[in-house]
Here is the input.
Amino acid sequence: MAQLVEGSVGGPAGEPLLVHPGQSQLTGWAADALDLFKRRMSDAEPPFPCIFGVDATRRGTLRLTFVPAGPRRLDHLAAALVAFAEQAQELGRRTSLVAIFEPDSALATLEDYRAEFWSMLSVLRERDTEPWPEGISRDTEHPEWEFSFHGVPLFVVVNTPVHKRRRSRYFEYFAITFQPRFVFDDLAETSPQGQRARAIIRSRLAEYDELGPAPVLGSFGVVGNREWIQYFLEDDNDTTHAGVRCPMHS
Here is the structure.
């Protein structure tokens, strides 16, 4: 970790770097964000579409980090990802890290949030000192590419305050969820369990969002699938951006 950050990094107002969903000692914007998050995960009408996130919150295997604004936000995020990567396997099959960011007046539009997200992911990739995971392609256009950090492949989901029609990608605070690839190990597209999970998620999405599923959604490893384009979904189903190379492509 010393190669990633300088000095110690903690949460806002001295809160711990990684927070259990049952944490009750948070203050200020972090306390508000945690309350909103837990309410979102526990809503029954309609239920949140991501059954894995709901289950991880209920089990207490999910972790959150609250990233303060300012020049050290990437230090904080990198340190939280390292800490999470080192304990993810112990937390169990259903786990994720949700990074919630202190509001930044410089971010106002979907384009702002998109640019900020890819900038952060690119910096994290440059800072990572661990070897690239075996079995994960380095080519962002390959169906078996996945963003990886500290040796852990991670599916990434972005929520912003400006997503409106795609409510499943809306949150009052800018948030990035990192799901370890092993979360999906028993959910292959052709397996009965995987088919059931996809059917439940699709059904919930139909109730939750004001528009149909994004046309760019796919399954890891399936020919033609591009994971990166699913990380930051648009607030419409326009696919004109689908031909663009990944912003992390080099």
In short: The first strand starts at residue 63 and ends at 67. The two ends are 25 Å apart (CA to CA). The chain is about 30% helix and 10% strand. The CA atoms of residues 1 and 79 lie 7 Å apart.
